[in-house]
């Protein structure tokens, strides 16, 4: 009931934004709130489904813990690798708006297919519809994720001080949807049946598609195709998306192939980015090196963070003293923390920036790694403090999510903000796609870590899981120390004193895609 009440308040706010005559609301253009609500519903569906997925794999399709975690990690890795394709097609041909709209259609179909559950077990032929549903969601996310983030940045000039605040508002929208989706879909799925939970996620995605279509006028022409687009070309690009669905349907069933794909395509992608970097003038080239440095830290952070929906979700279900609360609902803690702490962090960066004490972007990444590693160490200490074989106090679930959330707020919105700010305009969506690509690597790493918690027999044990958590926690603390030591040098390579908006006064401005994106408060980072 609380979740429904909060949802009603949000919908009332959306009606106010849509009907007010002012072009801005709370100091930001209306288009930001269209993207806020569209992404909120998309995240409602994505995280609602994600909260149930590991249980669906192990309890309904009867995969063992190790294989379930590996499939979970492989699925998420593909969700984050496909934005490279979606970003490239949007930059070169389709434009961000049409890419987002097409992605939303595919996601709606994918979540609807998740409602077909059959009788369960891997011998059930309905499992092929399950793989197809995952394929639709993977490709739909590829067209939507990077491009909707780019449109946010297009609403503001590069040096606009509202940029970090805009991305934080957008990020709060992501987590409002995540919290509501987990609570509603998780509760329905574990209480009444899988189809109810996944069906609720599908309805959420449909609402996101409707919001985005109706809100097009508020985007002020942002995100359109970079050049006139013929219908034949446009539908050919949609055909590429359908072919990609067939490819993903096969890949998700063969996780070893995904591992090799990530290795080889990662080398190719980073090589291409380096090739493009050496074409740039020296300061822009140095900024691209910073982009590569920050992107390289993604797999470390997300490999640990994404234990939340996999091994930590299973651990909470089996080894935590949680009363009668369904384990999937604990997935909402992270999102709720972000809703509460997001505005505090946004204000904190501004206040520190005004006084010249704001950490640089690479320093924030180092702090994020400290916190995600420390979260696991605190969790292990709490579990071991009550003795072997005893259920872990639920307090430590809240503590690990708290530390991981504060770490996320130091890395994820800051990273989204930095990617397009440091990247040249003509590479903006590709670089945002590369950011999500390395997040894909991190999610596959998460699956491998989750697989390790299953041990040799494939079934998770409390002792074995805590041993894995301790190891990854200490390794991450060590990596964080190196990043913090290097951060002053990396900060100098950002050349923030020479960063300026490009000339935008050109013919056909309203019709052209302008993949400029987010910035951060630069007062604490200017070269001295």
TrEMBL record:
<feature type="transmembrane region" description="Helical">
    <location>
        <begin position="235"/>
        <end position="252"/>
    </location>
</feature>
<dbReference type="InterPro" id="IPR036259">
    <property type="entry name" value="MFS_trans_sf"/>
</dbReference>
<feature type="transmembrane region" description="Helical">
    <location>
        <begin position="165"/>
        <end position="188"/>
    </location>
</feature>
<feature type="transmembrane region" description="Helical">
    <location>
        <begin position="395"/>
        <end position="415"/>
    </location>
</feature>
<feature type="transmembrane region" description="Helical">
    <location>
        <begin position="102"/>
        <end position="120"/>
    </location>
</feature>
<dbReference type="InterPro" id="IPR020846">
    <property type="entry name" value="MFS_dom"/>
</dbReference>
<feature type="transmembrane region" description="Helical">
    <location>
        <begin position="427"/>
        <end position="446"/>
    </location>
</feature>
<keyword id="KW-0812">Transmembrane</keyword>
<dbReference type="InterPro" id="IPR005279">
    <property type="entry name" value="Dipep/tripep_permease"/>
</dbReference>
<dbReference type="InterPro" id="IPR018456">
    <property type="entry name" value="PTR2_symporter_CS"/>
</dbReference>
<dbReference type="Pfam" id="PF00854">
    <property type="entry name" value="PTR2"/>
</dbReference>
<feature type="transmembrane region" description="Helical">
    <location>
        <begin position="70"/>
        <end position="90"/>
    </location>
</feature>
<keyword id="KW-0813">Transport</keyword>
<feature type="transmembrane region" description="Helical">
    <location>
        <begin position="126"/>
        <end position="144"/>
    </location>
</feature>
<dbReference type="InterPro" id="IPR000109">
    <property type="entry name" value="POT_fam"/>
</dbReference>
<feature type="domain" description="Major facilitator superfamily (MFS) profile">
    <location>
        <begin position="1"/>
        <end position="499"/>
    </location>
</feature>
<keyword id="KW-1003">Cell membrane</keyword>
<keyword id="KW-1133">Transmembrane helix</keyword>
<feature type="transmembrane region" description="Helical">
    <location>
        <begin position="365"/>
        <end position="383"/>
    </location>
</feature>
<feature type="transmembrane region" description="Helical">
    <location>
        <begin position="335"/>
        <end position="353"/>
    </location>
</feature>
<feature type="transmembrane region" description="Helical">
    <location>
        <begin position="258"/>
        <end position="275"/>
    </location>
</feature>
<feature type="transmembrane region" description="Helical">
    <location>
        <begin position="194"/>
        <end position="214"/>
    </location>
</feature>
<dbReference type="InterPro" id="IPR050171">
    <property type="entry name" value="MFS_Transporters"/>
</dbReference>
<keyword id="KW-0653">Protein transport</keyword>
<feature type="transmembrane region" description="Helical">
    <location>
        <begin position="287"/>
        <end position="305"/>
    </location>
</feature>
<keyword id="KW-0571">Peptide transport</keyword>
<protein>
    <submittedName>
        <fullName>Peptide MFS transporter</fullName>
    </submittedName>
</protein>
<keyword id="KW-0472">Membrane</keyword>
<feature type="transmembrane region" description="Helical">
    <location>
        <begin position="466"/>
        <end position="486"/>
    </location>
</feature>
